Amino acid sequence: MKCRTGTDADETRTRILEVAEKRFRRVGYHKTSVADIASELGMSPTNIYRFFPSRDAINESICARMVDEVADFAFAIARANAPAMEKLGQLLTAVHHHNKMTLIGEKHMHDLMVAATQENWPIINAHTQRMATIFEAIIREGIEAGEFVIEDAAEAARAVKSAFMPFFHPVLIEHCVRNGEDTEAGLCNQIRFILKALGKSEPAWT
User: What's the pLDDT score for residue 181?
Assistant: First the structure.
Protein backbone atom coordinates (compact mmCIF):
# COMPACT_ATOMS: atom_id res chain seq x y z
CA MET A 1 0.00 0.00 0.00
CA LYS A 2 1.32 3.42 -0.95
CA CYS A 3 1.98 5.59 2.08
CA ARG A 4 0.25 8.92 2.19
CA THR A 5 2.75 11.79 2.43
CA GLY A 6 2.26 15.01 4.36
CA THR A 7 1.89 16.86 1.06
CA ASP A 8 -0.84 14.47 -0.09
CA ALA A 9 -2.74 14.95 3.16
CA ASP A 10 -2.44 18.73 2.92
CA GLU A 11 -3.72 18.67 -0.65
CA THR A 12 -6.69 16.53 0.36
CA ARG A 13 -7.54 18.82 3.27
CA THR A 14 -7.35 21.80 0.94
CA ARG A 15 -9.63 20.11 -1.58
CA ILE A 16 -12.16 19.25 1.13
CA LEU A 17 -12.22 22.87 2.26
CA GLU A 18 -12.57 24.14 -1.30
CA VAL A 19 -15.61 21.94 -1.91
CA ALA A 20 -17.09 22.77 1.50
CA GLU A 21 -16.64 26.50 0.96
CA LYS A 22 -18.28 26.40 -2.47
CA ARG A 23 -21.26 24.59 -1.00
CA PHE A 24 -21.41 26.98 1.96
CA ARG A 25 -21.55 29.90 -0.47
CA ARG A 26 -24.21 28.17 -2.56
CA VAL A 27 -26.64 26.80 0.06
CA GLY A 28 -25.25 27.85 3.44
CA TYR A 29 -23.12 26.10 6.04
CA HIS A 30 -26.15 24.99 8.07
CA LYS A 31 -27.53 23.13 5.03
CA THR A 32 -24.24 21.40 4.28
CA SER A 33 -23.49 18.03 5.85
CA VAL A 34 -20.28 16.05 5.87
CA ALA A 35 -22.09 13.55 3.64
CA ASP A 36 -22.81 16.33 1.11
CA ILE A 37 -19.12 17.30 1.02
CA ALA A 38 -18.03 13.67 0.74
CA SER A 39 -20.46 13.01 -2.09
CA GLU A 40 -19.12 15.90 -4.19
CA LEU A 41 -15.60 14.61 -3.65
CA GLY A 42 -16.43 10.99 -4.39
CA MET A 43 -15.37 10.04 -0.87
CA SER A 44 -17.10 8.50 2.12
CA PRO A 45 -17.96 10.60 5.20
CA THR A 46 -15.63 8.34 7.17
CA ASN A 47 -12.78 9.36 4.92
CA ILE A 48 -13.54 13.06 5.49
CA TYR A 49 -13.14 12.45 9.22
CA ARG A 50 -9.62 11.17 8.60
CA PHE A 51 -8.70 14.77 7.76
CA PHE A 52 -11.07 16.73 10.00
CA PRO A 53 -12.10 15.44 13.44
CA SER A 54 -15.58 16.95 13.23
CA ARG A 55 -18.00 19.01 11.16
CA ASP A 56 -17.20 21.93 13.47
CA ALA A 57 -13.55 21.67 12.48
CA ILE A 58 -14.54 22.17 8.83
CA ASN A 59 -16.72 25.16 9.74
CA GLU A 60 -13.91 26.74 11.73
CA SER A 61 -11.40 26.16 8.94
CA ILE A 62 -13.66 27.95 6.45
CA CYS A 63 -14.12 30.76 8.95
CA ALA A 64 -10.33 30.96 9.31
CA ARG A 65 -10.02 31.43 5.57
CA MET A 66 -12.41 34.38 5.75
CA VAL A 67 -10.72 36.16 8.64
CA ASP A 68 -7.29 35.52 7.12
CA GLU A 69 -8.45 37.47 4.07
CA VAL A 70 -9.24 40.44 6.32
CA ALA A 71 -5.92 40.10 8.13
CA ASP A 72 -4.04 40.03 4.82
CA PHE A 73 -5.33 43.40 3.65
CA ALA A 74 -5.05 44.80 7.17
CA PHE A 75 -1.34 43.90 7.26
CA ALA A 76 -0.88 45.40 3.78
CA ILE A 77 -2.36 48.70 4.91
CA ALA A 78 -0.31 48.68 8.11
CA ARG A 79 2.91 48.16 6.14
CA ALA A 80 2.16 50.94 3.65
CA ASN A 81 4.38 54.02 3.53
CA ALA A 82 1.85 56.54 4.81
CA PRO A 83 1.09 58.56 7.95
CA ALA A 84 -0.27 56.45 10.80
CA MET A 85 -3.42 58.56 11.01
CA GLU A 86 -4.16 57.90 7.34
CA LYS A 87 -3.42 54.18 7.63
CA LEU A 88 -5.67 53.72 10.64
CA GLY A 89 -8.54 55.49 8.88
CA GLN A 90 -8.04 53.40 5.75
CA LEU A 91 -7.90 50.19 7.74
CA LEU A 92 -11.09 50.84 9.68
CA THR A 93 -12.89 51.79 6.47
CA ALA A 94 -11.65 48.71 4.60
CA VAL A 95 -12.69 46.31 7.37
CA HIS A 96 -16.18 47.77 7.58
CA HIS A 97 -16.69 47.75 3.83
CA HIS A 98 -15.48 44.16 3.59
CA ASN A 99 -17.86 42.98 6.32
CA LYS A 100 -20.76 44.96 4.89
CA MET A 101 -20.19 43.62 1.37
CA THR A 102 -20.08 40.08 2.76
CA LEU A 103 -23.55 40.68 4.24
CA ILE A 104 -24.91 42.11 0.99
CA GLY A 105 -23.20 39.83 -1.53
CA GLU A 106 -22.40 36.64 0.40
CA LYS A 107 -25.24 36.25 2.90
CA HIS A 108 -24.49 32.58 3.56
CA MET A 109 -20.90 33.41 4.50
CA HIS A 110 -22.10 36.32 6.61
CA ASP A 111 -24.33 33.87 8.49
CA LEU A 112 -21.29 31.71 9.17
CA MET A 113 -19.45 34.71 10.63
CA VAL A 114 -22.48 35.58 12.77
CA ALA A 115 -22.55 32.06 14.21
CA ALA A 116 -18.80 32.12 14.81
CA THR A 117 -19.04 35.46 16.59
CA GLN A 118 -22.10 34.68 18.69
CA GLU A 119 -20.75 31.28 19.72
CA ASN A 120 -17.26 32.65 20.50
CA TRP A 121 -15.36 30.31 18.22
CA PRO A 122 -11.63 30.38 19.08
CA ILE A 123 -10.76 31.58 15.57
CA ILE A 124 -12.83 34.73 16.10
CA ASN A 125 -11.15 35.52 19.40
CA ALA A 126 -7.75 35.00 17.79
CA HIS A 127 -8.69 37.23 14.86
CA THR A 128 -9.94 39.99 17.15
CA GLN A 129 -6.65 39.93 19.04
CA ARG A 130 -4.72 39.93 15.76
CA MET A 131 -6.60 43.03 14.60
CA ALA A 132 -5.94 44.75 17.92
CA THR A 133 -2.23 44.00 17.46
CA ILE A 134 -2.33 45.62 14.01
CA PHE A 135 -4.11 48.67 15.48
CA GLU A 136 -1.45 48.85 18.17
CA ALA A 137 1.41 48.74 15.65
CA ILE A 138 -0.08 51.62 13.65
CA ILE A 139 -0.78 53.65 16.78
CA ARG A 140 2.76 53.07 18.01
CA GLU A 141 4.05 54.42 14.68
CA GLY A 142 1.86 57.47 15.15
CA ILE A 143 3.22 58.06 18.64
CA GLU A 144 6.81 57.82 17.43
CA ALA A 145 6.08 60.19 14.53
CA GLY A 146 4.38 62.71 16.80
CA GLU A 147 0.97 62.23 15.17
CA PHE A 148 -0.65 60.78 18.30
CA VAL A 149 -0.34 62.14 21.81
CA ILE A 150 -1.44 59.12 23.83
CA GLU A 151 1.17 57.19 25.83
CA ASP A 152 -0.04 53.57 25.93
CA ALA A 153 -0.41 52.14 22.42
CA ALA A 154 -1.85 48.83 23.64
CA GLU A 155 -4.51 50.54 25.73
CA ALA A 156 -5.36 52.86 22.84
CA ALA A 157 -5.67 49.87 20.47
CA ARG A 158 -8.17 48.23 22.80
CA ALA A 159 -10.14 51.47 22.95
CA VAL A 160 -10.15 51.76 19.16
CA LYS A 161 -11.38 48.17 18.88
CA SER A 162 -14.24 48.89 21.29
CA ALA A 163 -15.18 52.17 19.62
CA PHE A 164 -15.20 50.55 16.20
CA MET A 165 -17.26 47.51 17.23
CA PRO A 166 -20.58 48.74 15.71
CA PHE A 167 -18.85 48.79 12.31
CA PHE A 168 -16.92 45.56 12.83
CA HIS A 169 -19.39 43.12 14.44
CA PRO A 170 -21.45 41.24 11.79
CA VAL A 171 -24.64 41.26 13.88
CA LEU A 172 -24.47 45.00 14.48
CA ILE A 173 -23.75 45.69 10.80
CA GLU A 174 -26.74 43.57 9.80
CA HIS A 175 -28.95 45.43 12.29
CA CYS A 176 -27.97 48.78 10.77
CA VAL A 177 -28.50 47.61 7.20
CA ARG A 178 -31.88 46.03 8.00
CA ASN A 179 -33.05 49.25 9.62
CA GLY A 180 -31.89 51.43 6.76
CA GLU A 181 -29.26 53.28 8.79
CA ASP A 182 -26.58 55.22 6.91
CA THR A 183 -23.53 53.22 7.94
CA GLU A 184 -21.23 55.28 5.72
CA ALA A 185 -22.01 58.53 7.53
CA GLY A 186 -21.74 56.81 10.88
CA LEU A 187 -18.44 55.23 9.87
CA CYS A 188 -16.88 58.55 8.86
CA ASN A 189 -18.06 60.23 12.05
CA GLN A 190 -16.70 57.43 14.23
CA ILE A 191 -13.32 57.45 12.48
CA ARG A 192 -13.08 61.21 12.96
CA PHE A 193 -13.88 60.70 16.64
CA ILE A 194 -11.23 57.99 17.03
CA LEU A 195 -8.52 59.92 15.21
CA LYS A 196 -9.28 63.12 17.09
CA ALA A 197 -9.03 61.22 20.38
CA LEU A 198 -5.59 59.92 19.36
CA GLY A 199 -4.20 63.00 17.63
CA LYS A 200 -3.17 66.51 18.49
CA SER A 201 -5.92 68.09 16.44
CA GLU A 202 -9.01 67.13 14.47
CA PRO A 203 -7.88 65.21 11.36
CA ALA A 204 -9.09 65.94 7.87
CA TRP A 205 -10.79 62.61 7.23
CA THR A 206 -13.31 61.97 4.46
Answer: 85
